[in-house]
Amino acid sequence: MFTGIIEDKGTVTSIVKGSKSAVIEIRSDVIMDDIKLGDSVAVNGVCLTCTDISKQTFKADIMAETLRRTSLGVLKSGSKVNLERAMKADGRFGGHIVSGHIDGTGTISDISPEANAVWYSIKASKDILNHIVMKGSIAIDGISLTVAYIDDQIFKVSIIPHTLKETILSEKKVGDIVNLENDIIGKYVEKLLRVSESPDNNKKKNDSSFEETLALNGFL
Questions:
Q1: Which CA distances in Å does 88 have to 9, 56, 140, 153?
Q2: Number of CB atoms found within 10 A of residue 188's CB
Q3: What residues have CB less than 8 Å from 57, skipping those under 6 apart?
Q4: Which of 11, 45, 128, 182 gives 20 to 30 Å between its CA and that of 138?
Q5: b vs e for 42-53, b when ≥16 Cβ sit within 10 Å of the residue's Cβ?
Q6: What b/e sequence results for 121-149 when a residue is b if at least 16 CB atoms lie within 10 Å of its CB, and e otherwise?
Q7: How far apart are CA 149 and CA 109, in angstroms?
């Protein structure tokens, strides 16, 4: 589990691609001090498992499903990536719950400065947009961000200078692909509502309120 607060901008030192999978090696000057074999690291928001570790680099396997669903396949030697180690239970929870399991990708359609911030417009599929709410959370390349605008084709986020400095967003341009992970709470709620509305469900459905639906499923 992650928080979406990026710890370091790492550099891809190599990526060896097979027919359906890949092995990636990443250098970091910040996060290597307490990484162990088998640890999880979010790379551009994608949860990967460390399979080999040196003093300044770690390696991870990328399976076929991950290549299909994320933008990791477009990385090459020299690419910059956002890095975050798995969340510690004794630390501050500064972002939102990020699982590292990417829902899909989006495309940057516009970048517009405004005062000290920068607006990023992201075009995404309806499946992604349906799980986004105004002022809700979304992880873009693993960065915990707040949605400031949404319609039926795009959503927008406003990026403060600190986030631009500490992540790879400042290096992105219009047309670039980014990894997207919806807020996991919204996905659970949607699942519960679908189950409660199923024809096979014997519980009262038609006139139940949202609160009653959650209560019936053990959340209240």
A1: 20, 21, 21, 36
A2: 12
A3: 13, 25, 26, 27, 28, 32
A4: 11
A5: bbbbbbbebeee
A6: bbebeeebbebbeeebbbbbbbbbbebee
A7: 14
Q: What is the pLDDT of residue 67?
A: 95
pLDDT digits over 158-217, tens only? 999 999 999 999 999 999 999 999 999 888 888 888 777 766 665 555 545 666 766 666
Nearest alpha-carbon partner for 27 in 61, 55, 63: 55
pTM: 0.85
Which two tokens mark 123?
């075009």
Query: In the numeric block, which tokens belong to residue 188?
Result: 């659970």
Q: What pLDDT does 90 receive?
A: 76
Helix (H, G, I), strand (E, B) or coil at 149: strand
* Sequence-separated (6 or more) residues with CB below 8 Å from residue 3: 84, 87, 93, 94, 95, 96, 97, 98, 144
Give yes or no for a contact between 45 and 112, defined as CB atoms under 8 angstroms apart. no
Low-confidence ranges of the chain (pLDDT < 50): 207
SS3 61: strand
